Amino acid sequence: MNPATGYAATISSVDVVAPALRRFVVSRTKGAFPAISPGSHGVFAFGNGQRTWKNAYSIVNRSEDGRALEIIVRRAEPTRGGSDFLYRHGGPGLNVSVLGISNLFPIVRTGRRHIMISAGIGITPFLSYMTEMRKDGMDYALHHYTRPEEADAFRAMLSPCDPSRVRVHEGRQEAVASLRMLLAREPVASHLYVCGPGGFMEWVRQTAATVGYAATKIHSERFISPAGGRVFEVMLARSGKTITVGADETLLEALENAGIDAPCLCRGGACGMCRVGVINGRPDHRDHVLTGAERDSGDVMLTCVSRSLSPTLTLDL
Amino acid sequence: MSIDTRFRSAGSYRAPYHMENSDAAILRFPFPFPEDHYMYSMNIEPHVKAGAVDSLRRTFDVDEHYVVECREKARILSEDPGRCIVLPHMRAAEWDFVELAMGSLSEDYPDLFHLSRDGTRWRWINRPLNIDQHFVFGDAGTLPYAPFEFMARQMQGDFTLQDQRDNDLWMDGGMVTSQADWSLKFDLGMSFGQWHAPVPKAGEMGIFDRGLRFLLMLQHGRPVRRLNWTMTVNPRLDTSPENFTIWGRDRAGVTGDNARDLVHLRVELQALFRLPRSNAILFAVRCYLLPLRDIALVHKWRIRLHRVLRDLDPALSAYKGLDLYRAHAVHYLARFDNNEPTSKGIGPDQDALVRT
């Protein structure tokens, strides 16, 4: 694999899982994708000629021969457009390169029992978890929360799974009623994994803490779909360059478009690889990585999701 | 070159010691000092197939000592099977290791190693060790040893497997037979901070925090490497705590006269790989030993090693166990140092050796 261009592939099939959900199979033209650990995400690059997007999606499945990866994409608000573009225009034949595959949300293999709680599109990492858990004879259970109109779609998606281990809960009312009880019923050795919208994950985490889960037994992956915002200027102290970050691009994308070799990995505010020093200006932190103290100090930021509160930022780049 | 002449067939890494290096082996030695002074640093670089010396240019380096080293490893394992331990939750990592090792060895040395794959039915040929093994990838019952042990026995150097959980790395498996005074039995199950606890200074310098943060983000297909070093008396690979009673006293036997033959610069080429199935990290520690008399054949290296040892921080000297004989090594090397400036980097700056 060439780290700059990644694994070349094309979309080989698309199917409609629910009105707002599409499943894409991305196949290599030659060779295979590497083996993948459950919970991995890939950074997928695709575009329309005018614009390239690089978005992270959980890998739901890798085919036995390694030629194909499967992802599920929810139509997003077209603020930056990556998922929206894929949802609308991602059809067979579209070129997609997989720039890198990494895992920020692995199964804790020393765990004796694993309980997975997901909402909506947050199901995706757990589809790969369950393949492995079934194969390895691990003890697990999945509780999936969905809005009623998508319940049938998720039931269909989960139909190959062992019905005694999987449960679909419909609507907010049932969520509130069931979660506390099912978490409290778990043995003390269980590891809890949460994936879904930010507010949902926070609610699950708090509920788990209330019924006595140790923080080290609660695992989550908090990807952020980078949102746009006000236009701002960035001055690069080392190279002396000044660049403008547009309303619908991220700071990281603006750096890359200007030919700056900026570090990055997950592109979703989850890993911390893209942290850079801030020399001047006030960053608008939108990540889940920096500590409170780092945030308050204002001298470091993550370029993939964060923006600026001041009209200009000076970075140590 | 035929296999018979490429590899040494005789040599001994235990008393009576007997280990020699060809000129080519000396010139490809991964000399660890890019400058005349040494202090800890985050000296990590991408493990690409390039580098100032030849030993850095393959995923796993195989040199003229391969056959004798593998034989020594087998002997240590037969005396102490506990040198290879892999915890049960690292099963996927074992197969990751098999795939990485067989794939890269057969690619880097097609005349020595061969791998053919037909789905999960694999065939592995190791010509120097006379191994021709058919097996089913993923089925441990089709190999004569557990998968990790099967392959680690056929490679020079030590290997450990680190599980990643709770934002930390845990040493949950390995095969360790050529170590600089640490023990897998002792460190097994420890976290990154725990197994590094005995190292002086580096912790307070923030090196372990930065190192761990970096490694947690290590990506598959983008391995990294660093060189580490210490010194060893006699060409002994197995300087283990388990066998301290055998080798420990040798350190008191160094004199001004014998330092050139007894004192060896011990360099570890450490490479780290993200393993794709398990999300574990493989830590490969390849050990190179070169006596001072061989280092003295390279003009730049003998001057630099003199300056590094002479000015070494006392805490590092004590930690590396050099206090009993460092002065003798410095005394021997001082004769080569005429105060001339040296070039940056680790390369030998010469293509051939002049043996007088």
Automatic annotation (TrEMBL), chain A:
Residues 232-317 form the 2Fe-2S ferredoxin-type domain. Keywords: 2Fe-2S, Flavoprotein, FMN, Iron, Iron-sulfur, Metal-binding, Oxidoreductase. Its cofactor is FMN. PROSITE patterns: 2FE2S_FER_1 (PS00197), 2FE2S_FER_2 (PS51085). CDD domains: fer2, PDR_like. The keyword Lipoprotein does not apply. One of its GO terms (molecular function) is oxidoreductase activity. This is Ferredoxin.
From TrEMBL, chain B:
It holds the Pfam family HODM_asu-like. InterPro entries: HODM_asu-like. It comes from the Bacteria. This is DUF3445 domain-containing protein. It comes from Komagataeibacter swingsii.
